[in-house]
Amino acid sequence: MCPRHPCQIGPDQSRRVEGTTVRRTPHPPRHRLPLKSACLTVTAAVFVLSSCAWGGDDGKSTRIPSAPRGLTVQAGSATSVHVMWNSTTDGSDVTGYEIYRGTAKVKDVPADRHMVDITGLKPKATYTFSVRARDGDGNVSPDSKKLRVTTPAATTADRKAPASPRTLRGEAQGGHAATLAWDASKDNRSVASYEIYQGGSKIHSVGGGTTDTLITGLRPGTTYRFTVKARDAADNFSAASPAVRVRTAAGKDSGRATAPADFTARTHKSGDGAYYIDLTWKPPHTGGAVTEYQIHLDGKSATSLVFGGTAPQDKAKHSFYVGRKSGDTHRVKLRAKLPDGTWGGYSPERTVTTAQSGPK
């Protein structure tokens, strides 16, 4: 068992702390291995690699894709739900995703999609959804986190559509994303969801209480046309909002809205004399769950942080070990992995010194 504070992690190891998997960049071992032990270790490694290579020669991959992260499920109407997840980017050759309602597969989508609408459901009913990734050899990942959702009750003889969303605004966030915002629609009952369209194709959906979103997966130097429609529980759709055109930047800039906000860094000393850097931040508002972050320390990637449970929405925090020496100065920043699998912009860089409680 690890002590209360994070343990030192060796090469290619990971650990889970309060629902979070942390992968640390390995540090050199404090003690040299005896030559005999080192030779045995290398010999064993070569044998294992060789035996793997001598396996079947059918050309098929035996690597199973990792389970999709960041699953969100919300009711779009009394008879439909919107399922969204983060693209799997573990290096496996993912060719598609399978969506499950309970144990039954209800949808297949290609790898370039990470959201889908499930229709034909019953009003005021509870369903459980999960997603699996599939590669070109037919290997299927474990289930994503399973989420329950309850559709709203059907409204009697409601044939009146919501008013069209007004004053749609858009802003490019670097070369791969754009933020959209609009004024709330009015309905004789209530708005269940807003549907976002790129050209004539629906690309996203948010709950009726949300009037902004981040669209990711765009191409640099490209002009996009967006509209929004309001939808009520009876599946009445409003007319489309006035269109807004957004042109993404030509470079690789990720944009301010994709970066973690309100980023702070402080240090503390544990009871055993070790120093830690404590980080807090507000996750970027992506319309989905942000489950993975990359922390840079002193100009280099130091830690991959993956939230294995429910990813924080309003405020996130993390603490990691940096050494035992007082007076060491470090620079730290982080960025989030967006739902489409790309990295967002970096937070502002903070400078901290061990034995001091706040940033310089």
Secondary structure elements and their pairing?
Layout: E1 14-17, E2 20-24, H1 35-53, E3 72-77, E4 80-84, E5 94-101, E6 104-110, E7 115-118, E8 126-135, E9 147-150, E10 166-173, E11 177-183, E12 191-198, E13 201-207, E14 212-216, E15 223-232, E16 244-247, E17 261-269, E18 275-282, E19 292-297, E20 300-307, E21 316-323, E22 329-337, E23 343-346, E24 350-353
Antiparallel strand pairs: 1-2, 2-20, 3-4, 4-7, 5-6, 5-8, 8-9, 10-11, 11-14, 12-13, 12-15, 15-16, 17-18, 18-21, 19-20, 19-22, 22-23, 22-24
Describe the structure.
Residues 67-154, 164-251, 259-357 form the Fibronectin type-III domain. It comes from Streptomyces flavofungini. There is one protein chain. The protein has 3 domains: 14-27 and 259-353, Immunoglobulins (Immunoglobulin-like, Sandwich); 72-150, Immunoglobulin-like; 166-247, Immunoglobulin-like, CATH 2.60.40. Helices cover 5% and strands 44% of the residues. The chain has one helix at 35-53; strands at 14-17, 20-24, 72-77, 80-84, 94-101, 104-110, 115-118, 126-135, 147-150, 166-173, 177-183, 191-198, 201-207, 212-216, 223-232, 244-247, 261-269, 275-282, 292-297, 300-307, 316-323, 329-337, 343-346, 350-353. The strands form 6 sheets. Strands 1, 2, 19, 20, 22, 23 and 24 form a 7-stranded antiparallel sheet that branches. A 4-stranded antiparallel sheet has the order 6-5-8-9, with no helix packed on it. β10 (166-173) and β11 (177-183) form a beta hairpin. The longest helix is centred in the N-terminal third of the chain and has 19 residues, at 35-53. The chain is globular, with a radius of gyration of 24 Å.
